[in-house]
């Protein structure tokens, strides 16, 4: 039986700040670990899908990002919360790649790896590209008012299936309505 997922954006959804010189500057947004634990317990797997264009820009390496992500996963795991991945687009917006949100490639990769039924799944993020990626894979799309949200709310409002103050609010909504 294919699994249900809540695909999570990283910068601005799970962690702050959104612009860093090194990934080690990121800290979890309050409530994000608790939100993932709630989703896990309701049966959702939580793949992280993220754009890290600072890799292509040379600000930090792909390996530095992966090393930091492993530490973040451990921090979540210590509190019984599991995030999987990461599924990373390392490219600038100007690069003609097929992995940058709102393109669906990274979501399909995660879905294949974890046997996920996207039509019964969710995408959560703080930008219009997260919401549109969710629509592309046939999932429900939830917008969080953290991170870059202020720049995207007007455009995103009518496209999202749900808008929550933060990932904790979105997780509660998914568990109740999903
Ligand atoms: Mg984001």
Describe this entry's structure for a reader:
The protein is an alpha/beta fold and 178 residues long. It has one domain: Rossmann fold (3-Layer(aba) Sandwich), CATH 3.40.50.1000. It contains 7 helices and 9 strands, in the order E-E-E-H-E-E-H-H-E-H-E-H-E-H-E-H. It has helices at residues 32-41, 53-56, 62-77, 105-114, 128-136, 149-156, 167-177; strands at residues 4-8, 15-16, 27-28, 44-45, 47-51, 84-89, 122-125, 140-144, 162-164. Helix 5 links the parallel strand 7 and strand 8. Helix 1 packs parallel to helix 7 (167-177). The longest helix is centred in the middle third of the chain and has 16 residues, at 62-77. The protein starts with a strand and ends with a helix. The mean pLDDT is 94. The structure holds magnesium ion.
What tags apply to this protein structure?
178 residues; alpha/beta; Rossmann fold; five-stranded parallel beta sheet; two-stranded antiparallel sheet; binds magnesium ion
């Amino acid at each position: 039986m294919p699994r249900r997922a809540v695909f999570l954006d990283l910068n601005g959804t799970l962690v702050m700040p959104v612009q860093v010189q090194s990934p080690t500057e990121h800290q979890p947004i309050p409530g994000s670990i608790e939100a993932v634990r709630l989703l896990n317990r309701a049966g959702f797997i939580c793949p992280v899908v993220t754009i890290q264009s600072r890799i292509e820009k040379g600000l930090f390496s792909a390996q530095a990002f992966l090393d930091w992500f492993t530490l973040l996963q451990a921090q979540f795991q210590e509190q019984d919360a599991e995030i999987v991945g990461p599924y990373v687009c390392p490219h600038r917006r100007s690069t003609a790649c097929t992995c940058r949100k709102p393109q669906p490639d990274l979501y399909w990769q995660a879905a294949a790896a974890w046997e996920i039924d996207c039509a019964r799944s969710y995408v959560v993020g703080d930008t219009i590209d997260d919401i549109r990626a969710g629509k592309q894979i046939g999932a429900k799309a939830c917008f969080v008012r953290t991170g870059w949200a202020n720049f995207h709310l007007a455009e995103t409002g009518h496209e999202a299936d749900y808008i929550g103050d933060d990932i904790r609010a979105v997780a509660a909504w998914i568990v109740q309505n999903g």
